[in-house]
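user: can you give me the structure for this one chain? tokens are fine.
assistant: on it. calling the predictor now.
[tool input]
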Amino acid sequence: MIPEKVRKILKKQRYKIVGNHSAAKLCLWTKRSIKTGGKEHCYKEKFYKDIGIKSHGCLQCTPAVMWCTLRCKFCWRAIELTLGQKIEKEDDPKFVAEKLIEAQRELLTGLGGVPHDEKLLKEAYNPTNVAISLSGEPFCYSQLSDLIKEFHKRGMKTFVVTNGTFPKRIESLETLPTQLYVSLCSNSKEMMKKVQNPLIPDAWERLNETLELLPNLKTRKAIRLTMVRNLNMKNPEKYAKLLEKTNANFIEVKSFMSVGFSRLRLPYSSMPSHQEIKEFAERIANCLSYKIADEKKESRVVLLKK
């Protein structure tokens, strides 16, 4: 399913490929947490401690590593090698869940040879939360609902990040994730064409359909705005108008990070400072009934909450 050329690139970037279309990769913050005994951790652990998110217990993965409907300029993957939107030969959800956890354990073995917290490393071998957000669009995998169910069976909390272009699949989820993220990185159809290069003609319409169905989904909902200086970080009132109809529990305003293949498309100077992100978040909040609830300077991210 994944061409050899693409496999080589993914392996070089330390992805652990699973089956025909899935992959896992150790998150930077998972490694930092294990190495520092939990002193350093990701913003999710800081923002969502109410549900016990732990960086060292996080499995960062995807069931659609190179499949997507968009080719965002700020994406860290090789968008030029996108394999389309339909996965022709899908693996069984139980197989995917088990093999992704196994992949995480294999990736963790490398941390045993460097200074680390033995207790946290041991705990990390049995991840407690899964971020289905590594690469690609997870809803390209038509059995995502059953995959979420498999992780829940194992007592894991699930965070799913989607670009919102599969509203029908989102609406028909039988098993909802612990928290559903929708990426909102453009505030108009014209901006989406420029910033996110859709591979489908109705991407903007599908995204709006997703935003409108969110209030009816009985799970925690977050909207993530990935901001790029001089590209999509403008007209906060337009973002606010779109956000208003979602009734999301949380809004994350975050800087794009200059990593991976994004460095070939955008200069380092396109990364907004944390102060710029905070000011933009405040301008959005002023248009809505949200306020700044938290922030993490190292990640250049601000959390808005009702």
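assistant: here you go. Strands lie at 16-18, 22-24, 58-62, 129-132, 157-162, 179-183, 220-227, 250-255, 291-296, 301-305. The first helix runs from residue 4 to 12.
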